[in-house]
User: Fold these one by one.
Assistant:
Number 1:
Amino acid sequence: MYSVNYVRAKSLKHAAEVLAQNPEAKLLAGGMTLIATLKQRLAQPSHLVDIAGIGALRTIRLSKDKLSIGAGARHYEVATSQVVRDAIPALAYLASQIGDPQVRNMGTIGGSLANNDPNADYPAAALGLNATIVTNRRRIKASDYFQGMFATALEEGEIITRISFPLPKKAAYEKFPHPASGYAMTGVFVAVTGRGVRVAVTGAGQGVFRWTQAERALGKNLTPEAIAKLKVDAEEMNEDMHASREYRANLVNVITRRAVAKLASAG
Amino acid sequence: MAKIKLTVNGVKHTREVEDRTLLANLLRDELKLTGTHIGCDTTQCGCCTVHMNGRAVKSCTILAAQADGADIVTIEGLAKDGVLHPVQQAFTDCHALQCGFCTPGMIMAVAGLLKDNPNPSEEEIYHGLEGNLCRCTGYINIVKAVKQAAGQTEEAH
Ligand SMILES: Cc1cc2nc3c(=O)[nH]c(=O)nc-3n(C[C@H](O)[C@H](O)[C@H](O)COP(=O)(O)OP(=O)(O)OC[C@H]3O[C@@H](n4cnc5c(N)ncnc54)[C@H](O)[C@@H]3O)c2cc1C
Ligand code: FES
Ligand code: FES
């Protein structure tokens, strides 16, 4: 790892100040992506601004129609929070399937969404539930937030503070994990909302996307059979050493059907 | 440089280290607690697992500075007064190790798992050990040891 200056942020304001004064500084949350990257010398920030100690970023709050999760909430906290389990059980389940226990004990929802790995799990929930990404500057709709592989609407020095999830009528997440890393080869979040069915797919494409054709079909008939014959365009899928475009395109259909089947038993 | 104060296995330490120092290196190189192993560069093998404020974490992917003020337990801190921790005893009884390289991290991960879930099913044991790799045992005896430590001892044989 290159040499770096570590700063423990005392408050959100303090973190923003250090970022403003140091254009090469980076936020540090759980470090499960960032420290791993630094160890490989794939980045060389001047400062690491640790926001893990800011208590206000860790809280989980439920209101009448929204679940608001602090950006600093760790994956295990979301997975085991009774509030999350009661409000959106599919979200708690998703968090319980990220990586491994040690990674879940450190990694945060804000770090995951800021990183926007094309194989990460949380982007599927954020887009599937039509969440709002709240930052220290503004509120960003999930549909505007995700901009392809590792790309987001976040500006220099902008800090995610909370993620606000509208409560769905019911929802389910299903994932085909990469057998070694645990990341989603394909992960599908299906949500039944007051405004129809939403299907968000991670892992398969260049970034998380909505499968609108399936959404329309499921809006009429909420069963796995309704989408059995639908296909996503293989040309738009990602291809790498683990799986071809065609394989991923097929996975999208299979995993979506499994997620829809799960809805039957979901709250 | 970062001035770090932390408690390791009940003993308070103060050290001045470079900001980029990893917790695993602080433990091994500065505190000479070499039971915590480093087996990979990719945060995947789990050999470096320790407990930080009661939770199992991979010390190779945490800065020592992040652990400032924390309470750390390493494999050296598990046995009490010369008596092995039940997970250590179970690994011995069930022959859950061969070369032993993964063992300290594996035991810390199991101790973490049983704290969260004292009576895990076989599936929960596999899910709970996804962050730890063993190149020798094939995991069968490790799972047996977890069951013994959880008090689910099978018939004596
Ligand atoms: C072995 C392993 C397996 C994994 N498996 C999975 C998996 O199956 N699924 C999955 O989804 N992920 C997986 N991950 C990634 C994991 O979920 C990370 O925790 C997550 O991607 C990053 O969160 P973090 O809190 O650790 O962020 P960090 O690593 O601290 O930061 C990541 C990036 O986000 C920025 N950032 C952090 N917080 C904020 C904020 N509040 N506002 C703005 N920017 C911010 C940082 O500057 C940095 O650029 C895995 C990681 C490992 C090591
Ligand atoms: S040394 Fe491999 S995970 Fe830490
Ligand atoms: S006993 Fe050799 S790696 Fe596990």
Number 2:
Amino acid sequence: MDAALEVQDLSLSIDGKQIYKDISFSLAQGSFTVLCGHNGAGKSQLLRTLKGLAKPSSGRILINGLDVTRKKKSRLSSIGLVFQDADFQIVGESVEKDVAFGPINLGWSEDRVDKAVSRTLAMMGLEDKRRQRPQTLSGGEKRRLAIAGVLAMEPGLIMLDEPFANLDSPSTMSVLKALADLHQAGQSLLVTSHEVDRFLAHTDRVLILEEGRLVYQGPSKDSLDALKKAGVHVPGPAFEELTWLR
Amino acid sequence: MAQMIFLTRDKEAFANHCHALGKLILLVTYCVLLQGARPGLVPVLVLPPLAFAIWRRIPVRSYLSQGALFIIIAILMAVAVYEETGDTQAALYEALRFTALVLASLLLLDCTHADDLASALSQLLYPIFRRYSFLAGSIVQLTLSMLPLVMETAQGVREARLARGERMLRHPIRSTSALAASILMTLLDRIEHWADALSARLYDPYARRPWQHFSWRDIVIALIICAMLVALPWTR
Ligand SMILES: Nc1ncnc2c1ncn2[C@@H]1O[C@H](COP(=O)(O)OP(=O)(O)O)[C@@H](O)[C@H]1O
Ligand SMILES: [Mg+2]
């Protein structure tokens, strides 16, 4: 089976400044991958490029085996991106309108939009907030709303930029639970994070980015040493204990 | 977090179910009537929106605190008119006229969703401007949905500056212009993120909008508009 996403020798410079260079990796269908690295490593810029919001300087991007490096439109519709700051991506006046925004832009029928909205809100545990204003949601709920807005567009791959940043522990748990459920349902996921405390156990693969270079990639189980070496905080001794959910 | 008065309150009320186009034309007609009316009539013309506001039980306190900007503009207008004419009554009437306009516009937003308003505008302009009418609708919709972002940014920046010990009153002009500049910078940054979020979800400003259907309620609105138009010559 073709990879959900394959990246070959991807580089990006902005105004002569090298943001990242020669990045190559591939994501298997249905896999949950975490992209680690310190602040400023280039994680967010890499996600923006993959999504189609920035143009790579060189390299190739393949989705399901098809070269889409020059097809911004097809990347925009087949890869979902949840931004770090949930507040910036709320565009609807109510929770359900916000979730419907993407599907409507995709030109779906009213019926299909309604179904997608109900299904995604149920998956993200937001059914009872349908008519609420997004601004009145808690941090964790807002983040789940942002995920719902992307999920409703049925992208083959969902990327999330620092989904656990600035959340208290119940909110972190609710977001992680949502991601673990999506993974169970076979959704391909790519998540960036500067720390892997208590969620590494849910992931399949680890990529480590350091100053724009991919310095490690491997199965999550075998990555503890590499993570420690890269200075990513890994407190617990055992891989299985790295979870917020228990 | 700023409270958002500009957001529609969903209610099972007559006004919420009327076609946005009818309400929009009603507002425009009211504005024309109010603008052209002789000063003595202004206090009378203020009554309908006031009555409607009371009837809808608008959240007065948040309207007052969030609408402080408009109140300041109204006061400035009154002062300007007084300087020019020396007539206190005329100054009061001008301020009243402006306040009534703002109130009527806010009431429209209180019972009409931004996207319905946008699609009503496209529906109105479509016969002449074709696909650009959808762009006009998008601009209105984006502007309206950006208002909370603007207000929230302004409040955040102001609080951040106060928290770091700025004393607005000592150098009011310098502080105000510095404040405006930092609000603008923050806003530009936020708008950039927002534009990303819009294109990430495939937003197309030229996309055709669904049009609302008319109902019996809109006949009532049409009758009110006609009545206002008939009354127009007598108010000059
Ligand atoms: N718009 C931009 N123009 C120029 N440089 C940028 C821009 N955005 C980010 N950078 C730089 O790119 C590098 C990577 O940033 P980013 O992808 O945000 O890192 P991370 O998400 O890993 O913390 C940083 O050094 C940052 O200064
Ligand atoms: Mg980042």
